[in-house]
């Protein structure tokens, strides 16, 4: 009696163990796809006062220097002024020790700060609005 | 947290609870007369898991649930085997598990808030060697290795705690990504390894040495040091084969266990018989013969598990350990500073090496050494310290997440 029960249940147990494992492998795939999304386009962009749009990459540097990702010719900007990068699911802005500073919603930032949609970034005399590209149907944006 | 991820965790937890209830009910009717102890044990175990899960989720919403649930499931599989092998050990192991979860939460909190306070590595080295020296002076011998301390009726393996302090020491020494005093570093590491060799814990010696190499390589990316280290390990291996009798016995039993099945090759031969008996789906819970395998509750629990859950069950366990290591590496990669990243890497490598050493040993891939299989083997020190390491990884993960949301309120 016991033997028969154990023989039948062993298939069920192995099935359940693999079901557990399947869930964790799925989590790993989710992890990896999250990592993969960090390369390429992030789905966010900056819009400046004059209406120009600058798409943001996983790491975007902003400054006067020609090798910055976003080159802005403004005498009040430092050559390497600020950097916006993706960390986890968030976009984070960091000031690169610029002379005149980077302001987020009017406050000067000292450390790396996570950005939220419609935040206004001020560098030199220019304002930039941090926006998400709407056309793309990203399903997970609730936590921003 | 993402609702999709949350739902996946919930599905995994329910699979875990089902496995527990089915196997422990089966084990309740396994012995005559019927005994409700396994079932009570299962209820206690699952309550601890759920309390631990919700408590960590409550104090740290972004806590790494992945590590905790995975480790909990491995503990559950270990408990099923222990309950089937020896009910007394099973009862004690449930208590050790509760203690381990307590330590997991404690070390998560401590690491989360205090990892920035870097202790001078010299002190950590002192603590490590003291821990390794204690059993040599006051220790008792168990299973050929003199690495146990006894206080009254309670025994403790200091080398398990030394693993943690050793990793902190290593991360502290090489965090500047360069080695300043190489001869001193080598001497310090070799002293710790030498103490383990003296207490005849060669598996432990190998773990410490290879973890040190891995951490140094990760910090400095220097192939020459790593190659020299591996070469030195080879020489030490040959030397210990010639110097120590018990090493020679182990290696001969590994090369040809069938030469002397009732004597030297007994352990490994019984382990291989058990694994072969299992086939793909196993014999079924309670229908194998784990009583033939020596040290089945501690070192050889994996072969008993393979016998009753088969090749498929064993492959699943190996994959789970792989996922554990993967997650540890992921935590290390997420950390920006080199000191916490090296701590995360060190703990992960220690886990990975230990798992490889013992599973490789029981399936005769490498010579068998007496280290425990983390989370599955019977043993209080191993269980508590494995959960402490896991808590440290979790604390580091929390810190990595903290960095990502910096200034959110500003």
Automatic annotation (TrEMBL), chain A:
Ranges where the FHA domain occurs: 60-109
* Pfam family, any one: FHA
Task: Please list every transmembrane segment annotated in the UniProt record, as residue ranges.
Answer: 6-25
Q: Does the keyword Translocase apply?
A: no
Write down the SMART domains for this protein, in alphabetical order: FHA (SM00240)
- Keywords in UniProt for this one? Membrane, Transmembrane, Transmembrane helix
Q: What is this protein called?
A: FHA domain-containing protein
TrEMBL record, chain B:
Name the membrane topology term: Multi-pass membrane protein
Its main localization is membrane
Q: What keywords were assigned to this record?
A: Cell cycle, Cell division, Cell shape, Membrane, Transmembrane, Transmembrane helix
List the GO terms this entry assigns under cellular component, sorted alphabetically.
Answer: cell division site; plasma membrane
For this chain, one GO molecular function annotation is: lipid-linked peptidoglycan transporter activity
- GO BP terms in the entry: cell division; regulation of cell shape
Q: List residues traversing the bilayer.
A: 12-30, 37-60, 66-87, 94-115, 121-140, 147-169, 189-218, 225-244, 309-329, 341-363, 375-398
Note the InterPro entries from the entry: FtsW/RodA
The protein's location, in the record's own words, is: Membrane
Pfam families assigned to the protein according to its UniProt record, in alphabetical order:
FTSW_RODA_SPOVE
Q: What is this protein called?
A: Cell division protein FtsW (Lipid II flippase)
Species assigned in the record: Thermosediminibacter litoriperuensis
**Lineage of source species:** Bacteria, Bacillati, Bacillota, Clostridia, Thermosediminibacterales
């Amino acid at each position: 009696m016991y033997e028969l029960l154990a023989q039948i249940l062993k298939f069920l147990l192995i099935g359940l163990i693999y079901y557990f494992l399947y869930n964790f492998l799925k989590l790993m795939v989710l992890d990896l796809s999250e990592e993969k999304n960090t390369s390429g386009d992030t789905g966010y962009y900056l819009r400046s006062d004059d209406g120009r749009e600058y798409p943001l990459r996983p790491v975007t540097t902003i400054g006067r220097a020609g090798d910055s990702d976003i080159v802005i010719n403004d005498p009040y900007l430092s050559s390497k002024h600020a950097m916006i990068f993706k960390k986890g699911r968030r976009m984070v802005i960091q000031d690169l020790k610029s002379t005149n500073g980077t302001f987020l919603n009017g406050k000067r930032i000292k450390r790396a700060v996570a950005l939220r949609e419609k935040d206004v970034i001020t560098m030199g005399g220019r304002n930039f609005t941090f926006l998400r590209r709407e056309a793309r149907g990203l399903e997970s944006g609730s936590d921003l | 947290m993402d609702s999709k991820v949350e739902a996946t965790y919930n599905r995994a937890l329910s699979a875990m609870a089902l496995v527990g209830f089915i196997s422990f009910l089966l084990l309740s009717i396994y012995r005559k007369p019927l005994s409700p102890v396994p079932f009570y044990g299962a209820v206690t175990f699952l309550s601890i898991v759920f309390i631990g899960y919700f408590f960590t989720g409550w104090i740290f919403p972004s806590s790494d649930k992945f590590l905790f649930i995975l480790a909990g499931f491995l503990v559950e599989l270990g408990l099923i085997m222990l309950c089937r092998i020896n009910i007394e050990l099973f009862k004690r192991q449930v208590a050790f598990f509760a203690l381990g979860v307590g330590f997991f939460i404690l070390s998560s909190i401590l690491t989360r808030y205090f990892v920035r306070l870097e202790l001078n590595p010299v002190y950590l080295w002192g603590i490590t060697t003291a821990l390794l020296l204690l059993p040599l002076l006051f220790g008792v011998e168990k299973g050929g290795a003199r690495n146990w301390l006894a206080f009254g009726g309670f025994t403790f393996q200091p080398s398990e705690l030394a693993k943690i302090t050793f990793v902190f020491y290593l991360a502290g020494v090489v965090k500047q990504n360069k080695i300043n005093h190489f001869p001193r570093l080598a001497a310090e590491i070799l002293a710790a390894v030498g103490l383990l060799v003296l207490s005849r814990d060669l598996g432990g010696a190998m773990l410490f040495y290879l973890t040190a190499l891995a951490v140094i390589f990760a910090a400095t990316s220097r192939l020459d040091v790593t190659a020299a280290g591996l070469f030195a390990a080879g020489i030490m291996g040959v030397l210990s084969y010639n110097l120590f009798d018990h090493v020679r016995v182990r290696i001969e039993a590994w090369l040809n266990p069938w030469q002397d099945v009732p004597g030297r090759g007994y352990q490994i031969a019984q382990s291989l018989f058990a694994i072969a008996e299992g086939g793909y789906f196993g014999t079924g819970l309670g229908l194998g013969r784990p009583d033939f395998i020596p040290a089945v509750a501690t070192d050889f629990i994996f072969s008993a598990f393979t016998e009753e859950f088969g090749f498929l069950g064993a492959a699943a366990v190996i994959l789970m350990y792989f996922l554990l290591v993967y997650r540890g590496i992921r935590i290390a990669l997420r950390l920006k500073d080199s000191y916490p990243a090296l701590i995360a890497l060190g703990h992960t490598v220690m886990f990975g090496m230990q798992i490889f050493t013992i599973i490789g040993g029981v399936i005769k891939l490498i010579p068998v050494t007496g280290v425990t299989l983390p989370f599955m083997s019977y043993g209080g020190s191993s269980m508590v310290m494995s959960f402490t390491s896991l808590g440290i990884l979790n604390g580091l993960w929390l810190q990595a997440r903290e960095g990502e949301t910096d200034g959110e309120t500003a």
